[in-house]
């Protein structure tokens, strides 16, 4: 690759890495051409970007992007899964890709500037989505409120029954 093309590739990758909230490094060695194409389609549908870049250019771009947790000892055939939204999504996608294609191996990652090992990447993949967390919070907040509403309606119901009994008793008396 001529020098000018390398500079442009590093600049493009630096920009993408600086926008990414999470990056997963995977080894795709052993995947056939059609498998890589299917993998790219799947990853794109999930809102994650897959980039195959030379290791040296990746190190330079990560350094320029200021990713402190990015591994510096990249070797072999590597691809980057980058996500800008929910930082757990690239880890979920990497885990699903590794399940579909056993040759694909998760090597490492970066989660909001923190280095992530291959073992930790699987843990990050199990984190609930933002929507799930908001649903849990809403449920947790609604529980006590619902209990209060039931308790208050019980008190009101008992009061209404007591008034009805008083009315029946006064009606019977006279």
UniProtKB/TrEMBL annotation:
Gene3D superfamilies: 3.30.70.1730, 6.10.250.290. It holds the Pfam family Ribosomal_L10. The keyword RNA-binding applies. GO terms for cellular component: ribonucleoprotein complex; ribosome. GO terms for molecular function: large ribosomal subunit rRNA binding. It comes from the Bacteria. Keywords: Ribonucleoprotein, Ribosomal protein, RNA-binding, rRNA-binding. Belongs to the universal ribosomal protein uL10 family. This is Large ribosomal subunit protein uL10.
